[in-house]
Amino acid sequence: MFKNYIKVAIRNLLRYKIYSIINIVGLALGITSTILLALFVQNELSYDNYYPESENMYRVTAEFKMGNEEYNLAVVSPVLAQVALAEIPEIKKTARFRAAGNSIVKYNKISFDENKICFADNSVIDFFALNLFNGNSQTALVEPSSIILSENTAAKYFNNENPIGKTLTLNNESDYKVTGVFKSIPQNTHFDFDFMISMPSLAESKQLSWLANNFQTYLILKDGADPKAVKAKLDGMLVKYFGPELEKAMGITLAQLEENGGGGAYYLQPVRDIHLYSDLQAELGVNGDIKYVYIFSIIAAFILLIACVNFINISTARSATRAKEVGIRKVLGSYKKGLVWQFLTESFLTTLISLLFAIGLIELLMPYFNNLIGKQLTLEYFSNPFIVYSIFSILVIIGFLAGSYPAFVLSSFKPAEVLKGKIKAGTKSGNLRSGLVVFQFTASIIMIISTLVVLNQLNYIQNKNLGFNKENVITLGNTNLLGNRAQLFKKKMLQYPEVKSATVSGFLPVLSSYNEAMIWPQGKTDEGSSIQLWDVDHDYLSTMGIKIVEGRDFSREFSTDSTGVILNQAAVKLFGLDNPIGKIISRPYNNEGDFTNYTIIGVVNNFHFQSLRNSIAPLAIFFGNNNSIISFRTNTADISSVINKLKVTWNEMAPDQPFNYSFLDERFENMYRGEQRISEIFGTFAFLAIFIGCLGLFSLSAFVTEQKTKEIGIRKVLGSSSTLIVVLLSKEFVKLVVIAFIIASPIAYYLMNKWLMEFEYKTDLSFWIFLSAGFISLAIAVTTVSYHALKAAYSNPIDSLRSE
Amino acid sequence: MIKLKGIEKYYTNKFIKTYVLRQINLEIKEGEFVSIMGPSGAGKSTLLYIMGMLDTPSKGEYYFFDEPVHKMKERQLSELHKTQIGFVFQQYHLIDDLTVYENLETPLLYQKVKGSERKGRVAEVLDQFNIVAKRDLFPNQLSGGQQQLVGVARAIIGNPKLILADEPTGNLHSDQGREIMEILKSLNDKGTTIIQVTHSEVNANYGNRIINLNDGWIEE
User: Fold this and answer.
1) What is the interface size between A and B, counted as CB pairs within 8 Å?
2) ipTM summary value
3) What span, in angstroms and rounded, lies between the C-alpha atoms of B131 and B150?
4) Which of A31, A675, A797, B26 is deepest in the core (most CB within 10 A)?
């Protein structure tokens, strides 16, 4: 019997090729999208899951509130780990990281600018299941001045030599002996380091201060320990150790701080939750966001549903062609159940074929998808059982989802009616089909609107007046390697006419290094606030194009400018200064409470030095000698010649040191890489959704046209114009798209309004976005439908009438 | 074999009842060859479908070998026409996607006849109807007469006690029609009960009893 079903199914697929192709292509695309998105979601959910004790692993995070400032830190004091291990019996083990930022790493003549460097306790090797295949995992990071490397890095510096015992030099000053090589850290880990330096190498790690927070600190709790109890004990340590230090340094007790609405607390964050739920200061990498996991899961489900809808619509619309067979089979003694199984067999067969195509398509598209999501996912059918499960469950789900309704409709035909020819093609379930088409287009239109809104916001960001000029600026990093010759380098470059101006500084008005400390208006320590402090030279504001609204820039004519400060408007507002010019700001220079006074010489406008997600923070700019970056404003289109000159000068002044330049506008755009990515992913899948929807529309319109052939013939004989025929055939579908648009708009408005909330500076959800989304989908739908409509309208009416 | 008591069939449409069959009382004995005649729309086909259990009467009682059909569930009905009744249609109604062989095999599949026996039965009827050469062709590769031969072959392959034929020769020209009627006649001679709907006096004369239907009433 089953063989009989399969035979009929295959012959049917072959006989109605167009419909079969549409079904299979639609389903294959749907399955492809779903599996790709599922892989992404699976990867996001798999972070930090693979350690032997991952369910007992926590990171200690800290929250401090002082005055208006609130800090949510992924780092705590260096001493916390040691004291907690000694005082809290529930803790089994601890481990610490201290991110080390950029360094120039050198071996013999080879040197690279590296940024995946940290200091680490030896315990991280066990903690995070580092696979130390060369070296002793018990001792590798115990001795000061030892370092372990990832295997790729080891190969980069040492080729085929055995790296153990070799010496690497960091920043031309400290030597480290290689004591181990570890397998590269799996991509689904919340940190990624190529170099781990033994913690005892870092003097700061032995500090006993509870006020400085720079160490990522992890705990493994004993089985059955209650993390809440441990958190309470950590808070107890805060009172015991942090409190007295605070009083000594700032003159207020913890109790007083709490009275003023401030305070501090420690939290335990499950390590497995870091990637998707944590967004604190001093994270070890860019984390994901559970929100996008939800969004992509929903998109995957919708695309799959849209593809299923095609299958349902095509099968029910064309049920008439199968009605006779149903009647005959019932006459010959089939039960209804047998017919249901027969049609399910057909939908399973179609799904299976689509699945095979989808698997091929996935193999083909994987590199592009990886590029889109910025990961390196692979399809490992055998080592990743998830793939096998998901493929199998997709087969079952689609087979039933797409097949059960048509099976139910078809198998319930009454033989007496179909065999007497009473059932007209597709008369049943017409409303359902319309409903499903509306669903398909609603989902597609929501995705189109979302894509347009995201693009619009990105466009807004790019064109926003930032308060500084990000175009035509080349920045050169590592210039601290030049030491006090940085200004000389700048002068040499200024001799070229292409370089309009240049500045030596430590900070850029895009996400770069970060320096925050407490300052206060003279004599008012209680009004103090921790804000960003930048060190720049005379030419910073002019080179960046930052506007001065009051007072003046640092100037060579005033020798006193080393004790001058320029505030931005937000800082002026924060400290409540009227007529700020000439007022004094105090800045501490050590931990003993000693400070220097600075005179305010100017105020700059609020330029955007952070992401537009945040409002503009207070900022104080000092005249200083931080020389880690030199920025050049150019006035030529021939950028490469400038870069060449930079390189020549660099090799002259800093031979064998890595040359590292970037463009300010590119660094600016990198801040929005996440949004960019979302818009690309959204756009891609919105396009797919609408394409699959249109495939369905195409076959439905073919069906309707087929059904109305006779009517069209008669109308044409009676004198109807071709235009009227096209209108007649298209208007039903246009109506459905319009309904879909009406449903989709408020939903999209609600969702995108929520998304835009994340931005402090944002575009409006303007009317034209919705209109153009509606227009786009309508245009696509009409184009799709008009193929058959035009064909029918221009056919010779006699042909259609004769064939009846 | 068949006993109909007060069978009525009507459709209700906005409070108006349209009658198709009225007060049909009828008994058909095993071995009869009955022809149902009457003008178009008289209810002939409906009566045939009701007797074939493909349609349900609105009212009345139907006994098949003294079993009350009007009280049966789908499964029992299906069991009955699977084993006891064969159908022949005016439009042949073969399954387009199956070959002649597969069409003939289908009823046996539904009766769960074993593979070897199935092959034997199909070969037998192919032989009997002289269509062995056509066994691998699809219905649309056959002439109308050939299709109807397959239709009749399919109807008898399960050895039914009753054959219901709805204008079996309606779409055939006279030579082909005669051939089909001869076959039906010979089946009847071997003991199969046959009920046919027909417009043709000639065809009706192959049988031994004529029932006239007019506006849903029997005029015997």
Assistant:
1) 71
2) 0.84
3) 8
4) A31
Which of A170, A198, A189 has its CA nearest to residue A107?
A170
Question: Can you tell me the distance from the alpha carbon of B101 to that of A180, in angstroms, rounded to the nearest whole number?
Answer: 75
Least CB-CB distance to B95: which of A325, A335, A338?
A325
Count Cβ atoms below 10 Å from residue A464 Cβ, excluding itself. 13
Q: Domain ranges in chain A?
A: 1-46+287-427, 56-277, 429-464+671-804, 473-670
Query: Does the beta-carbon distance from B110 to A338 stay under 8 Å?
Result: yes
Query: CB of A611 within 8 A of CB of A455?
Result: no
In this prediction, the residues of chain A whose per-residue pLDDT falls under 50 are 804
pLDDT in tens, A52-91: 899 999 999 999 887 666 788 899 999 999 999 999 999 9
Amino acid at A398: I
CB atoms within 10 A of CB A51: 18
- Say whether residue B135 is in contact with chain A using an 8 A CB cutoff: no
Domain residue limits at B87: 29-56+73-218
- Residues β-bridged to residue B193: B162
Calculate the alpha carbon distances from B55 to A331, A413, A416, B2 in Å: 11, 12, 6, 15
Q: List, for residues A608-629, the tens digit of each pLDDT value.
A: 988 888 888 899 999 987 888 8
* Closest alpha carbon to A197 in A175, A229, A225: A175
- Flag whether B21 is in a domain: no
What is the Cα–Cα distance from A693 to A674, expressed in whole angstroms? Answer: 28
Identify whether B61 is part of a domain. no
How crowded is the C-beta side of B99, counted as CA atoms within 13 Å? 12
Does residue B9 form part of some domain? no
Q: Identify the CA nearest to A107 among candidates A176, A160, A179.
A: A176
- Residues in chain B, total: 220
For residue A329, list chain B residues with Cβ-Cβ distance below 8 A: 95, 106, 110
- What is the per-residue pLDDT for A804? 39
**A425-463 pLDDT tens trace:** 555 567 888 898 899 999 989 989 998 998 899 889 888
Residue in A closest to B49 by C-alpha:
A416
CA distance B182 to B173: 14
Distance, CA of A720 to chain centre: 56
| Total of domains in chain B | 1
Mean pLDDT by 10 residues, chain B (220 residues): 91 83 92 92 88 88 90 82 87 88 90 90 92 92 91 91 91 86 92 92 91 86
For A593, which DSSP code?
Answer: S
- What residues of chain A lie within 8 A of the CB of B109, using their CB? 1, 4
Q: Is A478 exposed, middle or buried (0-12, 13-18, 19+ CB in 10 A)?
A: buried
DSSP notation for A40-95: HHHHHHTTT--STTGGGEEEEEEEEEETTEEEEES-B-TTHHHHHHHH-TTEEEEE
CA-based nearest residue to A249, from A726, A625, A708, A590: A590
**How many C-beta neighbours within 10 Å does residue B72 have?**
17
If you compute the radius of gyration of chain B from its CA atoms, what whole number of angstroms results?
18
From the list A7, A215, A22, A35, the residue with the least C-alpha distance to A703 is A22
> Does a structural domain hold residue B44?
yes
- Mutation choice for A interface testing from B106, B122, B147, B154 by most A CBs within 10 A: B106
The whole-angstrom separation of Cα A253 and Cα B176 is 112
* Type of residue at A420: K
Task: Find the closest chain A residue to B76 by CA distance.
Answer: A335
Q: Report the SS3 class of residue A24.
A: helix
Query: For residue A5, which residues of chain B lie inside 8 Å, CB to CB?
Result: none
CATH number of the domain to which B208 belongs = 3.40.50.300
